[in-house]
Write a structure and sequence with these properties.
Layout: H1 17-32, H2 50-60, H3 75-89, H4 104-115, E1 121-126, H5 133-138, E2 142-147, H6 158-164, E3 169-171
Parallel strand pairs: 1-2, 1-3
């Protein structure tokens, strides 16, 4: 039986930081025999309210729960988002401007596939969300990091950002 080889492009980026932190926590707990307070991504320590659990049960027990959801947001969800943008930002948006996602990583990972080509550059904050880099590297585009420094309250220094921009910069 032939062994499947991992694509060489995956060697372009390191292990996901939160994966590495989870392994480190286990190592520290095993070595110290003490529990570590895990403040990493996606580790809520309070269970959801029974109200939400019951609503979820109601949804998954509905007669059409097994069907594909279609393409786009439901009318109720769309209207809720449109109302929220109006109240929060005084901004009028339409259904065509909505793209519901499973989560932020869903959009972050697919957007570069739709917009970037090999060799394009993407400005990425440092420190920043680690998931910004992976999709860029997978399609052989180039991340260009700009620093968010404590001396500037971790805000963008637009003069330095402009220096990082080139004719290959496609996203920022």
């Amino acid at each position: 039986m032939k062994t499947i080889q991992i694509a060489k492009r995956l060697n372009a980026f390191p292990e996901y930081i939160f994966s590495r932190l989870a392994k480190t926590i286990i190592e520290v707990e095993n070595k110290s025999k003490r529990n570590v307070l895990n403040l990493s991504i996606g580790t809520p320590d309070i269970p959801p309210s029974g109200q939400y659990i019951n609503k979820f049960i109601e949804f998954i027990q509905s007669a059409d729960a097994h069907l594909y959801p279609g393409y786009g947001a439901s009318e109720d969800f769309s209207n809720s988002l449109i109302d929220w943008y109006k109240k929060r930002f005084n901004l009028l948006i339409t259904n065509e401007e909505l793209l519901p996602l499973l989560g932020a990583k869903d959009g972050i990972s697919h957007l570069p596939l739709a917009l970037l080509n090999k060799g394009d550059e993407v400005l990425i904050p440092n420190p920043g969300y680690p998931a910004f880099t992976g999709p860029v590297l997978i399609i052989d585009a180039q991340p260009v990091y700009y620093d968010l420094l404590e001396t500037n309250n971790f805000k963008i220094n637009f003069i330095n950002l402009k220096r990082k921009t080139s004719n290959k910069t496609k996203l920022d």
